[in-house]
Design goal:
431 residues; alpha/beta; Trypsin Inhibitor V, Chain A; 15 helices; 20 strands
């Protein structure tokens, strides 16, 4: 019996696991190698709209990257990796009206807004194998599909560092929305698995939390050279800097995640974080590794630990506004304010007893009873002695109904001390 029961339980477990696998199938992602023409492009790739480069994918701290991460993208001294002017002329040509309409819909803009949109894009080279939602042009429509772009592919990114267009074919790009942990990459149609491909180095780009004025790139031909490229320019206004120069980690403990990310990015340092998802901009930074003062090269990562704000405390008006609930580190929040955290519960406990104080008017009503309802003095006495629990205030309406009727014109409160019968019940209610 025992063995048969064990077998049945094991069988149920196997079926449950297989059901989970069927419920969450792997997402098929098409590999797109550098230099390989698209089978269904928006733009004729033989016209030289863009040029890919040979770049080995770089190691990365976490698969989720913000678009303004220093060193996320690369550049070169060649200013024409993507001819934005040629793409604009093609899309605004009346002969390509239907293709332009499909292109604009994929990017959620209007056809009239295409020139202005293109003017805000910046050509860069991918330094990591990057997941995107790609689009083919089939039957006069933009057909979306998930794809993995190889490092070295030239793309146009928007003002928040998000890949928007694949340069060589003009295909529009959107953010990858699938589960990065459950993908199956297909290498086909000439896109053979490239040398150096590593599933662990695949990244997904999320828009920067702010509008970016310039992108800090790495020269893919001379990695010791950094490139500052203003957003919306094609390389003609680039300025170089020494990527080997060491930069001091700023003190970001106590700042919000959004503030800390901006400070680190402005220093040329990349932001890493503990946990699977991207923290909210309002999360409080409780620690950094390396700590403040450490000196790192351009693009090196600083890992932040954060504490997300407690929704309950944020709705409280009596407590301090910065009471985070630690999600990844408990040491920093405890050192940031132990006295305030120990004091706030007592103060909130005091305010929580405020409702009974609002019941004092019934205890102050006995003065009228000293004038008229002297014969009813015994009933009010048990009423006032049971006053401490707030629930008793709802019990005495039958006994307290008489005093309010006699107090149509209440006497001045100054008479209260002179009435000894009411003084004793009042002090017992307070205690």
């Amino acid at each position: 019996m025992t063995r048969g029961l064990f077998v049945r339980v094991l069988l149920v477990g196997v079926l449950a696991l297989s059901a989970c696998d069927r419920a969450a199938p792997l997402l098929t992602v098409k590999a797109v190698a550098a230099g390989v023409p698209s089978l269904a492009p928006f733009f004729d790739e033989s016209s030289g709209l863009g040029r890919d480069a040979q770049v080995r994918s770089q190691g990365v701290h976490g698969g989720l990257q913000q678009g303004d991460t220093p060193g996320l993208y690369g550049g070169s001294k060649q200013p024409t990796i993507c001819d934005v002017g040629k793409l604009e002329r093609f899309l605004t040509d009346p002969a390509n009206e239907r293709k332009a309409a499909a292109w604009a819909r994929a990017l959620e803009i209007t056809t009239e807004g295409i020139p202005a949109y293109l003017d805000g894009l910046t050509p860069v080279l991918l330094r990591h194998d990057t997941l995107v939602k790609n689009h083919d042009y089939k039957k006069e429509k933009a057909v979306p599909f998930d794809s993995l772009l190889q490092a070295g592919i030239a793309v146009l990114v928007d003002a928040q560092g998000q890949p928007a267009v694949k340069c060589s074919c003009g295909n529009p790009l959107r953010p990858f929305e699938g589960d990065t942990s459950r993908i199956s990459v297909e290498f086909e149609d000439g896109n053979e698995k490239w040398k150096g491909y590593d599933r662990a180095s695949v990244v997904t780009v999320r828009p920067a939390s702010r509008k970016v004025e310039r992108l800090a790139l790495v020269d893919v031909e001379e990695p010791a050279r950094g490139i500052n490229r203003p957003v919306g320019t094609g390389g003609e206004d680039d300025t170089g800097f020494d990527a080997r120069e060491r930069r001091a980690v700023p003190d970001v403990v106590g700042a919000t995640f959004g503030q800390a990310a901006s400070r680190l990015t402005d220093r040329g340092l990349a932001v890493g974080y503990a946990g699977e998802g991207l923290p909210s901009d309002g999360a409080v930074v409780t620690g950094s590794n390396p700590a403040a003062g450490a000196r790192l090269a351009f693009g090196e990562y600083v890992t932040l630990t954060v504490a997300e704000p407690d929704p309950e405390s944020s709705r409280s008006t009596s407590g301090p506004p910065d009471l985070p609930v630690p999600s990844s580190s408990a040491a920093a929040p405890s050192s940031s304010g132990p006295s305030s955290s120990s004091g706030s519960p007592s103060s909130s406990g005091t305010t929580s007893e405020a409702p009974p104080s609002s019941q004092k008017p019934p205890s102050s009503t006995p003065p009228p009873s000293t004038k008229a309802p002297s014969t009813t003095a015994p009933p009010p006495t048990p009423t006032t002695t049971s006053a401490p629990p707030p629930s008793t205030t709802s019990a005495p309406p039958p006994t307290t109904a008489a005093p309010p009727t006699t107090s149509s014109e209440p006497p001045p409160p100054s008479v209260t001390p002179s009435t000894t019968p009411s003084a004793t019940p009042t002090t017992s209610a307070t205690t």
